[in-house]
Write a structure and sequence with these properties.
The protein is mainly alpha-helical and 504 residues long. The protein is built from 19 helices and 12 strands. It folds into 3 domains: 98 residues, no CATH class; 178 residues, no CATH class; 175 residues, no CATH class.
């Protein structure tokens, strides 16, 4: 038999059939037979679907004792935090069932998670740095209105790839089939649930993955480009892509790319760029991808023979490229310490700074500004960046040596997304974040920027004031667990002491 909770308003008393309601005096009833629910805060008008009829002969401002007794006998309880005139009645059975249903869901992040949402605390400093301009890769930004116009370009690139490889027997059906076999593994790489069905998810993985592979091949081999190519005939498209493809939220798993790359591997010699010898065999996927981003930080091409074993996605490949080509590993040890997530990282920062562990160096000092270094007699020099990472900073013979860094429109976006990735991934140390801290320390004013520019350490394509400002905001609200350049700072304590004392 359906229960009918009786309510008494100060003005009227109502019977709400098959409804869950909160009336102005914060009475709450859970109707077991309710098909829908309604919540109202104090002073709100009551709106409900279904019959509502006044009930008379009930004392104003009270709930009939027999109704209360019946409701409590059925599992309802009063909230003791409310007085007699403001009572809340909760259906314990319904509440229990609701929470049990929530707990039955998968609450633990997969160990393979490597594609993350940018934490709001980092996103708030520049939201546009984490949103693609034109090309959506993966599921999270695929429905954005700005991305629709480029979907046709992806399909055109897929068509080009299939038509070229059709002689070797590669079919679209085969690509879908092989991707379907790794769909679950690919889905587990995302830190948040993907509300896309299996069929749609496989479709976007194949289309986006083949687009990236064809893009990297055409970038390397000019002979593959059509005369009316929609990307290489428009300079702005390359800028859009170098921005969009490094966003932490705009990734697909590397295992998907490798699978599609192997399936579509060229069976015939690929025509190289004009003036280049024909390659004996196709370059690896990692090499193709890295060459696409070759000059994004430096005018000189670093070594692209970076091992791709264990690569999670394109952004991870780029990060490993810059980190592993750095020569500072013999000076600084930043081992993975078992950090699980962002909160755990914050906890470790607080625990280590508590002073209870006497064996752990917890204090780190920032680098003096470029102006202070020059005033103290320290020379700032460009380090030979050929085959070196931008992270490869050394203090040697009274000089601070750094590889040259190009500052352009995409530089801030890349560094911000790399920082976000380091903050979210338990497998990543703080090397890029440390680099951002180093730049922030060196650049406090436009004078510092001028010094670094004249020394050749920075190749600034932006307004000096603008570049200075964004360096000072790059790592706001990021947690730095290990400062990668601490030993550079301590490599000559007497020299650094003289700098510090000079400017106190």
């Amino acid at each position: 038999m359906m229960k009918e909770p009786l309510l008494q308003n100060r003005a009227n008393c109502y019977n709400f059939q098959q409804q869950t309601v909160m009336i102005p005096h914060k009475f709450f009833f859970q109707n077991v037979a309710a098909a829908s629910s309604l919540q109202l805060s104090r002073g709100d008008k009551i709106k409900a679907e279904g019959p509502i009829r006044p009930i008379k002969d009930i004392q104003e401002n009270c709930i009939p004792s027999e109704t209360m007794a019946k409701f409590e006998s059925d599992g309802g309880t009063r909230d003791p935090s409310y007085g007699e005139d403001d009572q809340v009645i909760v259906d314990i059975d319904s509440l229990t069932s609701s929470v049990e249903s929530m707990m039955s869901q998968n609450l633990i992040m997969f160990a393979k998670c490597c594609i993350f949402r940018v934490p709001p605390i980092l996103r708030r400093h520049r939201k546009s740095a984490y949103i693609p301009n034109a090309f959506s890769i993966g599921p999270w930004h695929r429905n954005h209105p700005l991305m629709r116009s480029t979907e046709k370009i992806k399909l055109q690139y897929l068509k080009n790839l299939l038509s070229r490889e059709s002689k070797s027997g590669v079919t679209l059906k085969e690509l879908f089939k092989s991707t379907r076999e790794i769909e679950k593994e690919a889905r587990s790489c995302y830190a948040e649930p993907i509300h896309v069905g299996v069929e749609d998810f496989v479709r976007l993985l194949v289309i986006d993955g083949c687009f990236l592979i064809e893009l990297f091949r055409k970038n390397q081999y000019s002979g593959l480009r059509e005369e009316d190519d929609p990307i290489f005939n428009m300079s702005c498209m390359m800028q859009y892509l170098q921005h969009d493809l490094i966003l932490v939220e705009n990734q697909i798993p590397w295992l998907v790319l490798e699978n599609l790359f192997n399936k579509t591997a060229a069976k015939q010699p690929i025509r190289a760029k004009e003036g280049e010898p024909e390659p004996e065999k196709e370059t690896t996927l990692a090499q193709l991808a890295l060459k696409f981003f070759a000059n994004i930080f430096s005018s000189k091409l670093p070594n692209t023979d970076t091992p791709s074993n264990g690569t999670k996605h394109l952004l991870d490949l780029l990060r490993n490229w810059w980190v592993e080509s750095s020569g500072n590993d013999e000076d600084v040890e930043t081992p993975y310490d078992g950090t699980k997530h962002l909160l755990d990282r914050l906890r470790n920062c607080l625990v280590k700074s508590s002073g209870n562990d006497e064996d752990v160096e917890t204090e780190w000092e920032t680098m003096p500004s470029a102006t202070d270094l020059v005033d103290a007699g320290i020379e700032l020099k460009v380090r030979d960046s050929e085959h070196r990472s931008i992270l490869d900073v050394k203090f040697k013979n009274g000089s601070l040596e750094m590889p040259s860094l190009i500052i352009q429109e995409t530089t801030e976006v890349i560094i911000r997304n790399l920082i976000s990735y380091e903050q979210c991934s338990p497998q990543c140390d703080d090397k890029i974040t440390s680099y951002a801290v180093l730049l922030d320390s060196l650049i406090n004013t436009t004078k510092d920027m001028d010094i670094l520019t004249h020394s050749g350490i920075i190749n600034n394509w932006l307004n000096p004031e603008e570049a200075t400002q964004y360096f000072n905001k790059l790592y706001l609200d990021a947690c730095l667990k290990e400062y990668y350049y601490q030993k550079v700072r301590r490599s000559n304590p007497l020299m650094w002491l003289s700098v510090t004392m000079r400017h106190k």
